[in-house]
Design brief:
Elements lengths: L3 E10 L2 E8 L9 H10 L3 H7 L8 E7 L8 E6 L4 E2 L3 H13 L8 E9 L2 E10 L2 E8 L4 E11 L3 E9 L3 E6 L12 H18 L13 E9 L5 E7 L3 E2 L5 H13 L8 E5 L5 E12 L2 E10 L1 E11 L12 H4 L7
Parallel strand pairs: 2-3, 4-6, 11-12, 13-15
Antiparallel strand pairs: 1-2, 1-18, 3-4, 4-5, 6-7, 7-8, 8-17, 9-10, 10-11, 12-13, 13-14, 15-16, 16-17
Length: 342
């Protein structure tokens, strides 16, 4: 990458940092957002590594690459850049992106409701931003169709024994695991143990549970393990685990969408009903099942996720061939057991 300056907005959604690259990024080859994401993952991931690792980033954040849309019915495109790879969709990151687009005027804000159509590698996501005085007060995402792949899949995890997981798609593929199976409450003091358990489960699932989207070629593999529990008020307590070793600070929009699909498949929720998703630190999303459809002949639901983002600053990052750490680095003291070197 030639010497240049990246411009970023610093945004968080319920505590989960989702920085947004608004200028200076190199052009990514590809005719669609999916092709661009696959180029990053399979051909050239220098930009991803530059913005997700130390010394320019910390473990508890993602960075979103804002793109011109590749389809005529969208206002903007984006790709989620994380330490392990580029991902097709994320609810908290989509809320960060919409908040950035609206509050910077890239999409003109209307008092009341502003519609923002996002081109993602998982499909079109229609967002409705509730606006007042130029501020984005909340964002409702009409996510891509979510569907259950397998209910009650038993998997033997080395060092942990048999675990039962539900496999579902909510924008990416998830393994959804009841946290009481491993004797851990979803609470801040257990974050390290939950992260390590989730990574162990993901490693075991990767080899034995292949998954592929029936209508989007190249969208494959279980991205995350999400632990879940139930709070006394009926809210679903969530804890998505991410490589190289951390937990999501937000209630997780794509995971909540996947869990809605599982609940619908089990007969625990009907179209028109909603559940509150609550994160490990107490932040909330409202997850609604607003319709039914099919994906590749498989029953699916249309999920809507509502939450709030917050812009808290701006940043410029210098890209230079003279940078001593152009690929960044991760260390296990903060990045967990999967961390590498420079």
């Amino acid at each position: 990458m030639p010497d240049s300056m990246l411009e970023l907005l610093l945004v968080h959604c319920q505590g989960e940092i989702g920085r947004v690259i608004t200028g200076g990024a190199p052009e990514i080859p590809g005719a669609t957002v999916l092709e661009k994401m696959n180029h990053i993952n399979g051909v050239d991931d220098r930009l991803r590594r530059f913005v997700t690792a130390e010394p320019r980033a910390g473990v508890a954040m993602s960075t979103n690459l804002l793109l011109p849309p590749c389809r005529p019915d969208a206002d903007a495109g984006f790709i989620v850049l994380q330490p392990d790879r580029a991902h097709p969709m994320s609810g908290s990151n989509a809320i960060c992106v919409v908040t950035a687009l609206v509050e910077t005027g890239r999409v003109p804000a209307a008092e009341g409701e502003t519609v923002v159509r996002l081109d993602t590698a998982a499909g079109l996501v229609v967002a409705r931003a509730r606006c007042a005085g130029g501020r984005c007060l909340s964002v409702s995402l009409d996510n891509v169709p979510a569907f259950a792949v397998e209910i009650g899949r038993r998997i033997d995890v080395p060092g942990m024994g048999p675990i039962v997981a539900d496999i579902a798609f909510g924008g990416v593929f998830y393994a959804l695991v009841d946290a009481d199976q491993i004797g851990l409450a979803i609470a801040p003091g257990n974050a390290r143990a939950l992260a390590e358990a989730g990574l162990a489960m993901k490693a075991a699932l990767e080899d034995r549970v292949p998954v592929a989207h029936p209508e989007i070629p190249g969208l494959t593999g279980i991205a995350y393990v999400m632990f879940r529990g139930r709070d006394p008020d009926g809210a679903v307590r969530t804890c998505t685990t991410l490589r190289p070793g951390r937990v999501d600070r937000s209630p997780c929009g794509t995971g909540s969408s996947a869990n809605l699909a599982v609940m619908h498949a089990k007969g625990e929720i009907r179209v028109g009903e909603a559940r509150l998703s609550r994160s490990i630190i107490g932040g909330t999303f409202l997850a609604e099942a607003i319709g039914e459809t099919t994906v590749g002949g498989r029953a699916a639901i249309l999920p809507r996720i509502t939450g709030q983002g917050w812009i808290y600053g701006r940043e410029e990052l210098r890209i230079s061939d003279e940078d001593p750490f152009p690929s960044g680095f991760t260390l296990s003291d903060t990045w967990g057991p999967e961390a590498g070197g420079s």
